[in-house]
Amino acid sequence: MATLTFTRDDRYNAFITMLDNAETGPGKLSGIGIAIKDNISTRGIQTTCASRILEGYLPPYDAHVVTLVKKAGAGIVGKTNMDEFGMGTTTENSAFGPTKNPADTSRVPGGSSGGSAAAVASGMVRMALGTDTGGSIRCPAAFCGIVGHKPTYGRVSRYGLVAYANSLEQIGPMARTVSDISLLMEVLTGYDPRDSTSVNCPYAHIPDPDIRGLKIGVPEEYFGEGVDPRVASVVWDGISLLERKGADIITCRMPSMAYALAAYYVTCTSEASSNLARFDGVRYGPPADTRQTWHESFQERRRDGFGTEVKRRIMLGTFALSSGYYGKYYAKAQAARQQVRNDFLRLFREVDVIAGPTMPTVAFRIGEKTDPLSMYLSDILTVPANLAGIPAISVPCGTSEGLPVGLQIMGPHFRDERVIDVAYAFEQGVSR
Amino acid sequence: MTGTADTAGQESRVMDFSDDEVIIGLEIHCQLDTLTKLFCGCSTDYRDDGPNTHVCPICLGLPGSLPRVNRKAIEYALRVAKALNCTIVEESEFARKNYFYPDLNKGFQITQYDRPLAVKGYLDIEGDDGEKRVRITRVHVEEDPGRLVHKGGADRAKYTLVDYNRAGIPLIEIVTEPDIRSPKEARKFLNKLRATLEYLGVFDSEKEGSLRVDANISIQPRGWFDREGKGKADRGRAEVKNISSYKGVEKALTFEVTRQKNALRRGQRLGTETRHFVETRGVTTSSRSKEMEQEYRYFPEPDLRPLRVCTWADEIVLPELPDARRARFITQYGCSPIHARTLTGDLRVAEFYEQVAGIDPVFVATWVADTLLGELNYRDMSINRVSPDWFRELIVLVHKGNVTDKGGIEVLRSLLDQIRESGSCETPGVCVGRLGLRVLERTAETMSEDDPVVKAAREVIAEQPQAVADFAAGKKEAFNFLVGKVMKKTRGRAKPADVNQVLLAILGKEG
């Protein structure tokens, strides 16, 4: 056992909780300091999901991934800031204040894993765990100029991840290099009997930069309306680099993209409205006022404890699941979701991976996005992978207006290795 | 309000209630008797332990915890579905039922909604008019919520405590079609269901709170229901929630029949309402909760995969069920159909009977079905508290004639009272001695005055000169009268045959 020292100067407000010392041990991650997103349960360490409603909550158990990284010798240095319960694209929706983008402190780091991204990008830690429900790993990775991977659904146990939208989210690695992403994947993956959606598919792979003959599909929709042409141009340059390394570029279409965002927001808000029902002040967080009747105290606790965006999504989801609307919204969203899956399945019969921008723009200015709808629109390129459950990585591919741009690579189910290989090839190509 | 002259006229046209029928449908929740909870490894044996001692992150619904299906609970439920002759679906799915309540750890209950484990079954029962089939709509599995404890009673409590020991206990929900036609039939259905569940080894009815029943009840013109609710207007119905005992179901429904009949007679319109059974007062009261349909926002549980249960169901082999055992008791032991039904109506009784039947199956059947169960019922005791060993000893004494039937019952009562008082009892032999109930054995054919039967007979003859004279005059009844007097004098310990013989000997000689 050794104790890790690390910079405690949190100038970007990347952390909600910083630990005084991080114990490290032998193993694949020996001596490495790792930051954990604050929606992943850590035994005896406050886990708030950046919400007032969980302030002071000390989980009595470790999430499966926390057990795994500890066992691999990593030292947990703290819990990172995020959008409350993962609901946001900027890390501004935090009860603990916004995180700043190390690339430009007037900008947001992206979200919802903005704290993890900033901690890695600023060099405070070598790697971090994020979670990705609709792009929450890839968006901040792109905005901060680091690598972030959303694994195939089921490949990493969700046990201990405070649920936002169970059917969409995965825990995944964030780091400065693809090799570190690959290393962390080796630790995080594998079967966990406690998660019924867990699949026994361990990742044991060394990234291979040889992509000669690989077919890369580029959907037109990923360069369509709403995508900043300057970002599009940087990403096209990146795709050309892959072509120069021997890959075949094939343009294709993904018609289901038209429904993806709606399907995503109906699904995630529906699940969230149910998941967040347990926060009532009875069992954890600041206690309820027992002088009131239980429903009054529940109402007060939830009114005061949740932020605006969380309340908005709870109400949206509650509405979507109501009888009389279920068929109109939730059921339709599931049908659209199936179309997205089908589109990917069809495309992956013709191509090996799909590439495009991670985000339609570079990082926003802090406070720039005030209209929730325009904020939701910025998730359009990341949510399809969550709807389909496929692996997707964001790798830095240059800058636009001096701000980082991310290249997104998506692959078929359980082909995280292939996606990581392409990202690695790209990273090697850029650095050479 | 509908108190216009017009509606009053309409009411009067349906004022004839002679041809009404009671329509009852039941929704039964039973705790499945698994070792661990439905979605975690916590023990289900919580009843004697302190509050919140059988809990973990999963059954507390702590953030980040995930449910994992206890395969045993599903197997148990499938056994039930099979025994109830249900169609087991290809693929079954859990769903979330969302509502807020302090005993609900996650703000939703994991249950089943549109894809239950099994549908369309039946259970044959002894109905009011003979054998009857009650159709089963569906069988599904869900988790029990926690329990609220109102310190000092629900009305006066200053605060309420929550105990999550019960949270996550597997429940099976069985829904019947509205095929039951009387409160008594409802009771019989529940008894048969309980027996079936216990035979399957999936349920322990003796555990407190292991059964809860919701009953739908309405009174409709005869045949209304069979015409699928067509014809005269639906007269509304009541759903009586959360009845927690077998006797309570019959009581609550009987109360409802009277209440609804009275209301209809007075010309009131009965809407659809939820009522609560107040066990202590034997009445149902209208729940003050919202009249509108609850909004549960069901959707598929995303943390659990659908279960391909049809493949599991094939592997399930059912044990002998009550009907089969009843048939066997008739053929194997020669039990009367009525005794066979009583003896097999409760697994423990059936097993108890089989342990002691060897002495003389028909004789023992009467003793267990009529005598023992009657005495237990009178004392509200379970057969679990009767040891087959001492019961066997008692039966042997009676069977051999060492104790008369009447004496045997006296001993049984004494022993049961002892068990109820102190938890244990003396042996039947000791009890017989203490109570002086051993049958008076006639040593020989002698007419010696030392023989207690002879002594008693002589005393009676001396006391009843009129009867003796009547007998001498040829009145047969007079003899029976004298026999009765002798039996009484010997406190039932004399054998009737001995009394007959001695009386005849004396009277014959003297006459």
Kindly report the spatial arrangement of strands forming the biggest sheet of chain B.
Answer: 2-5-6-9-1-10-11-12-13
Mean pLDDT of chain A: 95
The fraction of residues in strands of chain A falls at 15-25%
How are the strands of the biggest sheet of chain A laid out side by side? 2-5-4-6-8-7-12-13-11-9-10
What is the radius of gyration of chain A computed over CA atoms, rounded to a whole number of angstroms? 20 Å
Percent in strands of chain B: 15-25%
Helix content of chain A: 25-40%
User: If classified by CATH, what would the architecture of the domain at 2-188 in chain A be?
Assistant: Alpha-Beta Complex
Low-confidence stretches of chain B: 1-13
Annotation, overall tally of beta strands of chain A:
13
Oligomer: heterodimer
The largest inter-chain interface, given as chain pair and residues per side, is:
A-B, 47 and 32 residues
CATH class identity of the domain at 2-188 in chain A: Alpha Beta
Structural class label of chain A = alpha/beta
Radius of gyration of chain B: 30 Å
